[in-house]
Amino acid sequence: MSCSIPKELIEKTIAFHGHSCPGLAIGIRAAEIALQKLGRPDQIDLVAIVETDMCGVDAIQFLTGCTFGKGNLIHKDYGKTAFSFYDRLKSAGFRAVIRPDISGEVGLELRFLSKKVANGSSNQEERIRYEALRQSLQDRYMGAELEEMFIIMEPAFPIPKPARILQGLQCEACGEMTMESRTRRIDGKTLCQPCFEKEEQKI
User: Fold this and answer.
1) Which residues of the chain are in CATH 3.30.1330.130 domains?
2) Tens-digit pLDDT string for the chain (203 aa)
3) What is 168-202's CATH topology?
4) What is the Cα 149 distance to its own chain's centre?
């Protein structure tokens, strides 16, 4: 079964991200699972936790409506292609992790050529092959069954609480206003994190 998200919505997602690529396809399919399992964003209190900063996160933002600004998109910098989704209203959720074998031999060859393309050592034939492999992998992701793409499991994190509006405090070193929960105390002073790190290095 190919992706159930309408073609015009996929095209808008690509336009939002800026280009089409395998990473974006992963995010599109992850968002598809969330919409299937939990429901439409306007009917639920949807929250997403992403464990990567890859291209696919843009698809999740665009298709689910979860954003950093609204506080319902949370980034855990673990470097894993894993996504957790929750409906706060029903206290329900799941974690989707990309299957290691989904990219197969295409993925292995693509990773090898990606390094050559990135460092400028590839020739024209390799660059053509690289683009063909990217399209092939993207097509595989968009055409796979969701169970082939992801391992679905219980969430790894508790359901995040709604975003809170906290007091801003003035850093006593740089003078900039900083969210209260992000300030640090050292030597009797309230500092923002960058100023705290500079001060801590002196001690």
Assistant:
1) 7-102+144-153
2) 589 999 999 999 999 999 999 999 999 999 999 999 999 888 889 999 999 999 999 999 999 999 998 989 999 999 999 999 999 989 899 999 999 999 989 888 888 988 988 899 988 998 999 999 999 999 999 999 999 999 999 988 888 887 777 899 999 999 999 999 899 999 899 999 999 999 877 66
3) Wheat Germ Agglutinin (Isolectin 2); domain 1 (3.30.60)
4) 16
Instruction: Return the residue matching tokens 């957790």.
Output: 84
Other CB atoms closer than 10 Å to residue 194's CB: what's the count?
Answer: 13
In 3D, which of 89, 96, 97 has the Cα closest to residue 42?
89
Using an 8 Å Cβ cutoff, are 22 and 130 in contact? no
CB-CB contact of 97 with 82 (8 Å): yes
List, by residue range, all CATH 3.30.60 domains of the chain: 168-202
Residue 68, Cα to own-chain centre: how many angstroms?
11
Is 7-102+144-153 in CATH node 2.40.50.100? Answer: no
Structure tokens at 203: 């001690």
**Cβ proximity of 73 and 63 under 8 Å:** no
Q: How big is the CA angle at 103 (ends 51 and 9), to the nearest 5 degrees?
A: 65
What size, in residues, is the chain? Answer: 203
